[in-house]
């Protein structure tokens, strides 16, 4: 039995939302996916275990100044299948797809102890600042070091300007 990472199909959409609900135990991540999944630049991958979807990752358009990049998230794996490498496989495939689409960079908010293994570095190293840093309406605190970037094209290192996430991310909380 092997898990295949593939593009999300229209028939997968309801299950993708359920995966995010199960993975996070809330409606917030599913609401983000629903709000941005049909926008230009958005796409998703799923982890398919012989017809049973067990993981999902959403990517959407974001900007550094006027330069388009990708934002990664949410990414979720159903709880019984966590810690099997499915999330890592989704992450690697998402970055491979970003390269295939000639995207300059992928940004995310995540644990700085986890994401460097996939090529992420602190976005502050590029002098990019996350507008969501600090306490959130839901009580969660976003630290500047949680804002990370995987540079796909070295030209992205020269991007300057305001970081803008898809408006759906402002709905969290």
Short description:
This protein is an alpha+beta fold and 173 residues long.
* Element-by-element helix/strand order: EHHEEEHEEEEEE
The helix count comes to 3
Q: Roughly what percent helix?
A: 10-25%
Q: How far from one another are the termini?
A: 38 Å
Q: What sort of overall outline do the alpha carbons produce when their principal axes are compared?
A: globular
The main pleated sheet reads as:
8 strands, mixed
Mean pLDDT, to the nearest integer, reads 92
> What integer value in Å does the Rg equal?
15 Å
Provide the low-confidence segments as ranges: none
What structural class do helix, strand and pairing data support?
Answer: alpha+beta
Percentage beta strand: 25-35%
Q: How many strands in all? A: 10
Describe the structure.
- The protein has helices at 13-24, 28-36, 86-100; strands at residues 4-7, 43-49, 52-64, 67-77, 105-109, 121-122, 134-135, 141-142, 147-151, 163-164.
- Helix 1 (13-24) runs antiparallel to helix 2.
- It is 21% helix and 31% strand.
- A hairpin with a 2-residue loop joins strand 2 and strand 3 (52-64).
- It is built from 3 helices and 10 strands, in the order βααβββαββββββ.
- The protein is α+β, with helices and mostly antiparallel strands.
